[in-house]
């Protein structure tokens, strides 16, 4: 965990005061809605269909139990008793009153939580691997760098009014859990031939109506230079990114229009011209931030404790363990994913009671630490293996032990037309229906890893382009229709999905998905061949034939 | 329009002169980039201070050779959501060493004052009187800054390292 010091605390308190003043000026009419809109967006406040929506940052997905309890408090005190975890390590509250927002922010600031730049055309919350610091085989903890970049991008005087939003993600593991290739800047921590730590820098990824997979702009930028290199990219983008058309304003369009070579050349020239502007991170600076991360005092524990052996005869426990428990870098410990995807529930939602209870479990079993992943699930990152059976029982009682992590019902979905003023179609009810169709966990196990992503409009908050199966809601003559793509993925081999056929009406979506899964089961080479690999091997056509033959 | 300069409400000594309009014989004037670039030498020879209004989509390379002769550069915010001039300001101050007046013009509201000052602006054509009046107060909103810019404010990281250094020196 990163511990805020007096300076960090002062800054977020100053931001709360500033926002309080802005809300006051809006309520008194001193600010027009048009003026206020930009200011509230810079602090994560959207006007949605029914109310203001408030998006709060969970930088690089790390939370303390105290912070999670404070989310529960905000949900109870200012909202309707629940919150929604998003695909970018944020939590959203959907029913906040404008006049109460400054108080909610002040309550969060007390535990070092803020909502700065969670929306608007600025640098958004820096995201990272939810297993950072505990995943085996990691280069080093990417949160040190995430925090350095978080600070650098917070209230940046030059880049707070960019052409469009700007998202940075960082991974340090071989398997990319942070989806860096669909970010404006993706950073992959690795070591060069001399053993120096640095980054492969990717640029221009993003979804929305013109999706692109990020391209490598520089294979290696030393850690000491990463801030100045990011600054150079942003300066080029701030000056040359399009501002005439909101749909062409993301950096991906600039990179696409210039071509990656020309864009890289512009950045390189700017980077060289910058000279020393105080952005070089020397050893002391990096260690200063590193020193304020605390790590658990792990015990020396056996690889296979008796508690685990005894629980092995419990089928339900075993199914959950195989699905939701992952290897930890320290012997005797595990990473436990908490599914926020119960059968029939809206993906990513957690009630205030669940949040409080998870905070208690984190204190008891995970050194008080919780993680949030882009798949809209939570994780307890440091659970002693001997505690797994007890933890399972507790999670099961809370409805947080659905053994469907990475399976067909672990669906990513945006809020859709139920909440969002931009949406063309509903997302949540589609997800809920699919979780009912595939409610049998044995069937889901048989199908294996399969990511379904649902967006209620072309803005793609549900990342439909990179779902193994992607579902996009559109509106046709006043009715909800859904376009379905297959073969997308968001990991280190990121790829956009391919349209499988004509859009289908709301009532038929679940049938079509079932048919797609049936087709895959019939066509896969062997049980271990994942859905996405079958699509890669065979292409879309054989699946399309089977699904649309009778339609 | 109220002008805030070096932190105070000030009478604007510069006259905005439209393209084609006759230049006053003396006194400070602000002219457009087109007018200036058509004959920079003639304008620079004129008695009285000269300022240029530089659009936010025009390359600074054309302006840089003339910076020594200019008393003001006015950068433009067509709307306050268009942030290109923040980059221009930092480049003028930090890369090209410009130390004359750097003026923000366009839709200037109080909520940009801190950012603009940090980027190097020292004069503001403020849209609303109430915002101009609130300048000094608004500048006190923040006491912690994470990024280094040419304004010389010490960053949080540097303050921490100084603190650490003095702590270890005191032991």
Describe this structure in words.
The complex is a heterodimer of chains A (551) and B (171). With 551 residues, chain A is an alpha+beta fold. Chain A has 18 helices and 21 strands. Chain A has helices spanning 6-27, 33-41, 65-78, 101-109, 142-153, 226-240, 251-258, 260-274, 283-290, 306-311, 315-324, 352-365, 388-398, 428-437, 441-447, 509-523, 531-538, 541-548, and strands spanning 45-47, 52-57, 62-64, 82-85, 90-96, 127-128, 168-171, 185-191, 197-203, 215-222, 325-327, 333-338, 349-351, 369-372, 378-384, 412-413, 452-455, 469-476, 479-486, 498-499, 504-505. In chain A, strands 16, 17, 18, 19, 20 and 21 form a six-stranded mixed beta sheet that branches. In chain A, helix 1 packs antiparallel against helix 4 (101-109), helix 7 (251-258) crosses helix 8 and helix 14 packs across helix 16. Chain B has helices at 33-38, 40-45, 84-95, 113-119, 129-133, 135-139, 156-170; strands at 3-5, 8-10, 15-16, 29-32, 50-54, 72-77, 101-106, 123-125. Chain B has an eight-stranded mixed beta sheet. The N and C termini of chain B lie far apart (56 Å).
Kindly list the characteristics that best describe this protein:
heterodimer; A: 551 residues; alpha+beta; 6-stranded mixed sheet; 5-stranded antiparallel sheet; B: 171 residues; 8-stranded mixed sheet
């Amino acid at each position: 965990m990163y511990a805020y010091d007096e300076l960090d605390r002062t800054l977020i308190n100053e931001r709360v005061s500033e926002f309080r003043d802005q809300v006051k000026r809006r309520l008194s009419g001193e600010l027009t809605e048009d003026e206020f809109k930009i200011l509230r967006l810079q602090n994560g406040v959207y006007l949605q269909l029914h109310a203001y929506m408030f998006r709060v940052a969970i930088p690089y997905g790390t939370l303390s139990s105290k912070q999670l309890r404070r989310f529960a408090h905000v949900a109870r005190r200012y909202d309707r008793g629940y919150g929604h975890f998003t695909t970018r390590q944020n939590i959203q509250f959907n029913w906040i009153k404008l006049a109460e927002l400054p108080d909610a922010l002040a309550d969060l600031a007390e535990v070092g939580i803020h909502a700065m730049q969670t929306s608007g055309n600025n640098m958004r919350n820096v995201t990272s691997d939810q297993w950072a610091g505990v995943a085996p085989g990691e280069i080093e903890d990417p949160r040190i760098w995430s925090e350095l970049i978080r600070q650098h991008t917070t209230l940046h005087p030059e880049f707070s009014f960019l052409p469009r939003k700007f998202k940075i993600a960082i991974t340090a593991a071989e398997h990319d859990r942070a989806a860096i290739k669909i970010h404006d800047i993706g950073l992959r921590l690795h070591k060069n031939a001399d053993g120096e730590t640095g980054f492969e820098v990717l640029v221009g990824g993003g979804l929305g109506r013109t999706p692109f997979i990020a391209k490598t702009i520089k294979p290696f930028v030393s850690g000491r230079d990463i801030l100045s290199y990011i600054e150079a990219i942003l300066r080029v983008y701030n000056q040359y990114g399009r501002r005439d058309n909101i749909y062409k304003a993301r950096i991906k369009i600039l990179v696409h229009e210039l071509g990656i070579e020309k864009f890289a050349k512009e950045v390189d020239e700017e980077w060289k011209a910058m000279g020393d502007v105080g952005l070089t991170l020397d050893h002391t600076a990096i260690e200063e931030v590193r020193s304020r991360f605390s790590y658990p005092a792990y015990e020396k524990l056996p690889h296979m404790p008796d508690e685990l052996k005894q629980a092995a005869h419990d089928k339900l426990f075993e199914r959950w363990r195989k699905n939701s428990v992952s290897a930890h870098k320290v012997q005797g410990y595990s990473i436990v994913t908490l599914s926020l995807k119960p059968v029939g529930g809206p993906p990513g939602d957690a009630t205030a009671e669940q949040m409080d209870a998870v905070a208690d479990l984190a204190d008891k079993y995970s050194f008080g630490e919780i993680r949030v992943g882009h798949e809209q699930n939570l994780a307890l990152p440091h659970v002693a293996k001997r505690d797994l059976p007890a933890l399972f029982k507790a999670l099961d009682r809370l409805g947080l032990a659905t053994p469907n992590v990475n399976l067909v019902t672990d669906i990513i979905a945006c809020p859709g037309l139920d909440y969002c003023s931009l949406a063309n179609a509903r997302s949540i009810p589609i997800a809920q229906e699919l979780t009912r169709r595939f409610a049998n966990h044995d069937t889901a196990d048989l199908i294996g890893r399969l990511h379904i992503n649902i967006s209620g409009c072309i803005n793609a908050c549900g990342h439909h382009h990179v779902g193994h199966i992607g579902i996009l809601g559109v509106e046709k003559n006043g009715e909800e229709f859904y376009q379905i793509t297959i073969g997308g993925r968001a990991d280190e081999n990121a790829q956009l999905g391919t349209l499988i056929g004509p859009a289908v009406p709301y009532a038929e979506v679940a049938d079509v998905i079932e048919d797609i899964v049936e087709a895959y089961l019939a066509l896969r080479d062997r049980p271990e061949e994942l859905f996405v690999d079958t699509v890669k091997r065979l292409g879309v056509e054989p699946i399309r034939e089977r699904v649309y033959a009778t339609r | 329009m109220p002008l805030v300069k070096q932190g105070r409400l000030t009478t604007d000594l510069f006259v905005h002169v439209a393209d084609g309009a006759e230049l006053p014989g003396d006194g400070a004037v602000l002219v457009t980039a087109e007018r200036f670039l058509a004959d920079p030498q003639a304008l620079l020879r004129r008695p009285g201070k000269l300022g240029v209004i530089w659009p936010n989509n025009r390359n600074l390379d054309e302006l840089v050779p003339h910076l020594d002769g200019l008393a003001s550069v006015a950068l433009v915010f067509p709307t306050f959501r268009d942030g290109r001039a923040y980059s221009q300001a930092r480049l003028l101050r930090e890369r090209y060493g410009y130390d004359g007046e750097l003026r923000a013009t366009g839709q200037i509201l109080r909520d940009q004052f801190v950012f603009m000052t940090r980027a190097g602006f020292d004069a503001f054509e403020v849209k609303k009187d109430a915002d101009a009046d609130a300048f000094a107060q608004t500048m006190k909103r923040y006491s912690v800054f994470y990024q280094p810019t040419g304004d010389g404010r010490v960053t949080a990281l540097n303050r921490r390292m100084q603190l650490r250094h003095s702590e270890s020196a005191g032991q």
